[in-house]
UniProtKB/TrEMBL annotation:
PANTHER family: 2-OXOGLUTARATE (2OG) AND FE(II)-DEPENDENT OXYGENASE SUPERFAMILY PROTEIN-RELATED (PTHR47990). It comes from Solanum tuberosum (Potato). This is Fe2OG dioxygenase domain-containing protein. InterPro entries: DIOX_N, IPNS-like_FE2OG_OXY, IPNS-like_sf, Iron_ascorbate_oxido_reductase, Oxoglu/Fe-dep_dioxygenase_dom. Keywords: Iron, Metal-binding, Vitamin C. Residues 181-289, 512-610 form the Fe2OG dioxygenase domain. PROSITE patterns: FE2OG_OXY. Transmembrane segments: none annotated. The keyword Lipoprotein does not apply.
Length: 651
């Protein structure tokens, strides 16, 4: 009978490796001892250390060193082998792109799979079709990894023969149609140091990889020798650390072996929390069944468990493809994003309804989503951030030439702590730009915001770039709002005309200082960048630095969820005016910025607003959907904006 565990056992498999193909392997005394240990470990823990495995320790170290060398390259180098559906889900993922149970993981990785040729498994293999894409730097990366994969495959096959004996079958019980032509996966992973993770990640133990089980038969983890980060959950629900033991692999069983054993062996939940001040590398090799294997409980295991199948059969390749698809397309981060947080703005009518559904779900569940396929050149998005950074890195005397004041219509530069959120100064500097308001344009309503933007003379191309960018953001926002009009059950132009036929806009370019310059007050109170708030208008497009996780969004449970950068996308969120128009069907969600990294962070926020003089009240179509009662009084947008602006700045 299985017992609970407080530590993970160590098994010397060398006797098994010496006799792995011997015809009388089961009768060997040394093998029998290993088999007994494997059986106990798989029943009690689902995890064990493997020593005496025959893979040179020097190779294990070299594999981690070369992985670290790759990850320490500039992002532009790493992205040359970017993972996508087109690569058969092979390649590099940046921090936050892998999803575990609906939450982004704070790690970067390269995923490699055994080659799948066209038609190799019929339609089953289409999703995973392709060969691995290897980095050119370090130059010996491919050669070393391929040698390592061959050795891990050989070792795993031999351990599986021991596990087959442990289950009461023959040594080759899981060869043939089950694992005679095994698939494999190699995942090379880098976990950032705790010093660059934000307060949310630390508080919720969610730094590296969320709790999960593995898909296949057997996993071999080669982890850094000096960092304790891997944790395994025992049957009592306690998280038990799996500290590194130099020269060993941490080995665990996966979902497919759980099925084969009819539940005699359990695929155990585990997670990674790197709370150390050092970057952590591990290389995980996954030994899987044949890609097209129909995996179901073994007869020998059925006999041991009363003759009833506790699991339906599963085709391994289908199981794997479903997981790969989920990570790329369907992983609903229920607390924050919809369909992996990314909405593709497809131009073709045949998928318009799909985009509208995605927008509706994102606005209902999160109020936040990523937008890709938006048509704004990535090169321009990068240039906008670069020119903003160039401006902020000038001496204060240069920046103050366009100082914000009431006389400028609240346009211009604010230094650190001059912006106020809910009564607390924000640790940011910024420039605010608004659509021009001419004298008398909106009567008394427009007097406070009257004026034109004051542009810096340095950098010299700042004004030209920003004005072009504003035009493009206005166009994209208007089109997204047409989709949201449809999502609410109205027409595409539901929010044109008197609501937003002549939309106001705001552009805010923001710089957040590195955490190393902050005083203890700022760190302690988590108001480093910008305090929690909702946005005023209809829609916000946020263009943030690609390599800093700082934006956080609060879900309905009150948890703060990180919104890590996804290169080439905007983070989009809805504002107070859209909440009113929808009669509360859509929520303007609280968010904040905490830059706990040692680097200066830039973001550029574009706000798409109603007409300045629009009276915003619930749409008829939304009132009908919510029982016929208007949940909000009408609000004049310009009046709402002015009240916010005059209370937001220290003059």
């Amino acid at each position: 009978m299985a017992t609970d565990f407080k530590f993970i056992p160590v098994i010397d498999v060398s006797p098994l490796l010496e006799k792995w193909d011997h015809p009388n392997i089961a009768q060997d005394e040394g093998v029998a001892q290993v088999v007994k240990q494997l059986d106990q470990a798989c029943r009690d823990a689902g995890f064990f250390y493997v020593k005496g495995h025959g893979i040179p320790v020097s190779l294990m170290k070299e594999i981690k060193n070369i992985a670290r060398e790759y990850f320490h390259q500039p992002y532009e180098e790493k992205i040359e082998i970017k993972l996508s559906a087109e690569t058969g889900y092979r390649g590099y993922q940046r921090i936050g792109e892998n999803i575990t149970k609906g939450k982004p993981d704070i790690h970067e990785a390269i995923d490699c799979y055994r080659e799948v040729k066209h038609g190799m498994y019929g339609g089953l293999g289409d999703v995973m079709q392709g060969s691995n894409i290897w980095p050119t730097n370090p130059p010996n990366f491919k050669q070393l990894m391929e040698e390592y994969i061959d050795r891990c495959t050989d070792l795993s096959r031999k351990i599986m023969r021991g596990i087959a004996l442990a289950l009461g079958g023959s040594a080759d019980e899981m060869e043939g149609d089950i694992g005679g032509d095994p698939f494999w996966v190699l995942r090379i992973i880098g976990y950032p140091a705790a010093s660059i993770s934000n307060g949310h990640d630390k508080a919720h133990d969610d730094v590296g990889c969320g709790a999960h089980t593995d898909y296949g038969l057997l996993t071999l983890v080669n982890q850094d020798d000096d960092i304790v980060a891997l944790q395994v959950r025992n049957k009592s629900g306690e998280w038990i650390s799996a500290p590194p033991i130099p020269g060993t692999f941490v080995c665990n069983i996966g979902d497919m072996l759980k099925i084969l054993s009819n539940g005699i062996y359990e695929s155990t939940l585990h997670r990674v929390i790197n709370n150390s001040p050092k970057y952590r590398v591990c290389v995980a090799y996954f030994y899987e069944p044949n890609f097209d294997a129909a995996v179901e409980p073994l007869d020998v295991c059925l006999q041991k468990t009363g003759g009833t199948k506790n699991f339906e059969g599963a085709v391994y390749g289908k199981h794997l493809e479903q997981k790969a698809n989920n990570d790329e397309e369907h992983a609903a981060i229920l607390v924050l994003f919809w369909r992996n947080g990314i909405i593709q703005m497809w131009p073709k009518m045949k998928v318009l309804a799909q985009v509208v559904r995605q927008l509706d779900q994102a606005c209902r569940h999160a109020g936040f989503f990523y937008v890709k396929g938006h048509g704004i050149p990535i090169s321009l998005m990068e240039e906008i951030k670069s020119v903003t950074r160039e401006y902020f890195h000038q001496p204060y005397e240069e920046k103050i030439k366009i100082k914000l004041s009431a006389a400028t219509g609240y346009r211009g530069y604010q230094r650190f702590r001059e912006n106020i959120t809910k009564g607390i100064p924000d640790m940011q500097e910024a420039i605010d730009f608004y659509r021009e308001v001419k004298h008398g344009m909106y009567g008394d309503l427009g007097e406070v915001m009257q004026g034109s933007n004051t542009w810096p003379s340095n950098p010299s191309k700042f004004k030209e770039l920003m004005e072009h960018y504003i035009d493009l953001c206005t166009d994209v926002s208007r089109k997204i709002m047409r989709g949201i009009g449809l999502a609410l059950g109205g027409s595409a132009d539901e929010m044109e005309g008197e609501i937003a036929g002549d939309p106001f806009w705001v552009l805010r370019t923001i710089g957040y200082p590195a955490s190393s310059i902050l005083d203890e007050y700022d760190k302690a109170d988590n108001v480093v960048g910008c305090g929690e708030h909702t946005d005023y208008g209809l829609l916000t497009l946020l263009n943030q630095d690609d390599d800093i996780v700082a934006l956080q969004v609060r879900n309905k449970s009150g948890e703060w969820i990180s919104a890590p950068p996804v290169p080439g996308t905007f983070v989009c969120n809805i504002g107070d005016m859209l909440k009113i128009l929808s009669n509360g069907i859509y929520e303007s969600t609280l968010h904040r910025v905490i830059n706990n990294t040692p680097r200066y962070r830039v973001c550029v926020a574009y706000f798409y607003e109603p007409n300045f003089d629009a009276t915003v009240e619930p749409l008829d179509v939304c009132s009908q959907k919510t029982g016929g009662t208007k949940s909000f009084e009408g609000a004049v947008y310009g009046k709402h904006l002015v009240s916010k602006v005059i209370n937001n700045f220290v003059m």
